[in-house]
Amino acid sequence: MKEVILVLGASGQIGTELVMNLRETYGNANVVASDIKDAHPDVMESGPFEEINVMDGNRIAEVVKKHGVTQVYHLVAMLSATAERMPEKGWALNMDSLFHVLNLAKDGAIKKVYWPSSIACFGPNTPKMNTPQETIMEPSTVYGISKQAGEQWCNYYFNKYNVDVRSIRYPGIISWKSEPGGGTTDYAVEIYYEALKQGKYTSFLDKGTMLPMMYMPDAIRATVGLMDAPADQVKVRTSYNLAGISFAPEHVAESIQKIMPDFKLDFAPDFRQAIADSWPSIIDDSRAREDWGWKHEFDLDRMTEDMLTNLKVKLGL
Length: 317
Ligand code: VAH
Hints:
Pfam families: Epimerase (PF01370). InterPro entries: Epimerase_deHydtase (IPR001509), NAD(P)-bd_dom_sf (IPR036291), NAD(P)_epim/dehydratase (IPR051225). The protein has 317 residues and is an alpha/beta fold. It folds into two domains: 5-172 and 214-241, 3-Layer(aba) Sandwich (Rossmann fold), CATH 3.40.50; 176-213 and 245-281 and 298-314, UDP-galactose 4-epimerase, domain 1, CATH 3.90.25. It has helices at 13-26, 41-46, 57-67, 80-85, 87-106, 142-161, 187-197, 216-228, 249-257, 272-277, 286-292, 300-314; strands at residues 5-8, 31-35, 49-51, 71-74, 112-114, 117-118, 164-166, 168-170, 172-174, 200-203, 211-215, 240-241, 245-247, 264-267. The strands form four sheets. A six-stranded parallel sheet has the order 3-2-1-4-5-7, sandwiched between helices. Helix 1 packs across helix 8 (216-228) and helix 5 (87-106) packs parallel to helix 6 (142-161). The longest helix has 20 residues, at 87-106. The mean pLDDT is 97. Bound molecules: (3R)-3-hydroxy-L-norvaline. Residues 79-80, 118-120, 143, 170-172, 180, 183-185 line the site of (3R)-3-hydroxy-L-norvaline (VAH).
């Protein structure tokens, strides 16, 4: 049976690159991009795009039927910083949209679902170093609560309705092609733009704020790798811990200064510091490595070199 994939959130930071990666594998016509606004020109010009508001379950079902969709990657979410400003909207968007997609799978309209969780599902009393796959999970943010709840619903739909839904607890993700929006880890993207534009950056997270992070190519490879794994290798049906590199803002500055010695970093922590302080620093992803062969490839310096090289072209510098 031909695989046809629908990506919800194709205009977002991850969706933009995931669509392009999936189209290389499945063929442009077999990967339908969707969002509430137009996506990156590469996405719009390389294959089908449908305008979908994920709060409208009927619209999702209509597009699934129209294109004969077999798999849905549901990437739409209100991220941590934004959701703290509008808790009820954040909860509704993150949860109601997940139910629309899970119920499509329960009803047999689609075969497989990908839905990302986040290290935000952990909270202040979760062990911060080498955070285990199973541990204390008392998130203190709207986004984290929605991700923890979503994980439990994914596990419920797998056990009760045999829905093949798979999930990864993404760390902060860094990329150059599309910018993140509304996240607490966004500093780790902004710093590269500002290094090239201004030669300096003021971080909204303080010195010493170590967080789990990952370069986009690793995140895409992990996402597709999990979805391609044989179902019997996917033994965790809440969401897999995934680790790449953990660093604090000053570590990024040191990495940038190896290429741009005059780059300057200073700190002005804002409300997002409290969010970051509630999250782990280093994640144990041994279960993902054991179950489906995960291994990250980018370290901080290799990411820095790739970010600066590509951003210079993107910014016309
Ligand atoms: C955020 N980028 O900052 C997201 C991510 C682990 C953080 O989930 O909200």
